[in-house]
From TrEMBL:
Name the UniProt record assigns to this protein: NAD-dependent epimerase/dehydratase family protein
PANTHER family linked to this entry: EPIMERASE-RELATED
InterPro entries in UniProt: Epimerase_deHydtase, NAD(P)-bd_dom_sf
Highest taxon, organism lineage: Bacteria
Domain NAD-dependent epimerase/dehydratase: 4-249
Keyword list, A-Z: NAD
Species of the source: Dyadobacter luticola
């Protein structure tokens, strides 16, 4: 039985990952600044430490002797309303960088056998993602660097941090760039939710014949990966000898309006999409519409080559599962129609 630590296990992806690691027979310790909102601790770990990983003393306590693997998913992050308005840039960079500086050092001191770091597709250059139909997110395109957000810059710095610790201190690392992971037991309201959760919540709560807002013109493109697929890919990477960085995402690209329509179709309702941007958005919300890059889609060729991993289910299947869950927790309970 391996002894593993999931940092950020009180969050969405970390909670699902910890649950799977525990189910697979590993001893699991979690540390997060918050409790998991939807998972009972006993379901996902053997130990849950409530602590602030920006504090080096907390990291020293959490990363104990004799642990085989550390999964580092802790970060200050959220959806477009949190990352792209510019209002949280200092906290995003400061808090996440401190966490990674602390973790990298302590993992070397405690002789952890292997460390996984969750980076992000937000590291890719903005200029490679101007065409919604032809974005370039191949791993080798990350440089010359030009992320479109401070979140992306911090992720890129931390990739280099872990790889430098690998070169200089023989820290055995794996680095993956996540592309828009979604699913049940995640944030679905309050401003930190990702686009699939936001669309599904709106579809669940909007009455038949109503309308809901989509930020931007809706023609920006993205790909979205169901959380269980993400966990499979992370475990495959950790079991391999491939270091990365490597994309973990889906290549099923959709426009944001198509994503919204998918949520509406799943709800079985007749709902109209209202795109809001420009001056109308500023007048309503007080800041520019945060839409991110025009196009982003995972390029999985490197993962296929090195590990043979493929996404197993279409986007609509994961969206339907997530709709059912959001319908229950939001109080708008109804079945999915796909």
């Amino acid at each position: 039985m391996k002894k593993v630590i999931v940092l950020g296990g009180g969050g969405f992806i970390g909670g699902h990952l910890a649950k799977r690691l525990k189910q697979d027979g590993n001893y699991v310790r979690i540390c997060d600044i918050k409790n998991h909102e939807y998972f009972d601790h006993r379901e996902i770990c053997h130990e849950f430490i409530l602590g602030d990983l920006t504090d080096p003393k907390t990291v020293e306590l959490v990363i104990g002797e004799g642990f085989d693997e550390v999964y580092q998913l802790a970060a200050d992050m959220g959806g477009a309303g949190y990352i792209f308005t510019g209002q949280n840039d200092a906290n995003v960079m400061h808090n996440s960088a401190l966490i990674n500086l602390n973790v990298a050092k302590e993992a070397v001191v405690k002789k952890v056998k292997k460390v996984f770091y969750s980076s992000s597709a937000c590291i890719y250059p903005e200029n490679n993602q101007l065409d919604p139909d032809n974005p370039n997110c191949e791993e080798s395109s990350a440089y010359p660097a030009n992320p479109d957000s401070e979140y992306g810059w911090e992720k890129l710095f931390s990739e280099r941090l872990y790889l430098a610790f690998s070169r200089n201190f023989k820290l055995n690392v794996r680095v993956a760039r996540f592309h828009n992971i979604f699913g049940p037991q995640g944030t679905w309201r309050g401003g930190k939710e990702k686009a699939p959760a936001a669309m599904l919540r709106k579809a669940a709560e909007t009455p038949d014949g109503g309308e809901f807002e989509v930020w931007g013109d809706g023609q920006q493109t993205r790909s979205f990966l169901f959380v269980e697929e993400c966990v499979e890919a992370v475990l495959s990477l950790m079991e391999s000898e491939f270091v990365g960085p490597v994309n973990i995402g889906s290549e099923e690209k959709v426009t944001i309006n198509q994503l919204a329509q998918m949520a509406i179709d799943i709800s079985g309702k007749n709902i109209t999409i209202k795109n809001i941007y420009g001056e109308e958005f500023i007048q309503k919300y007080g800041f520019k519409c945060p839409t991110g890059v025009r196009g982003r889609n995972s390029d999985n060729r490197l993962f296929r080559k090195e590990l043979g991993w493929e996404v197993s289910a279409p986007l609509a299947e994961g969206m339907a599962k997530t709709f059912d869950w959001i319908s229950v927790v939001s109080g708008a309970e109804q079945p999915a129609y796909v």
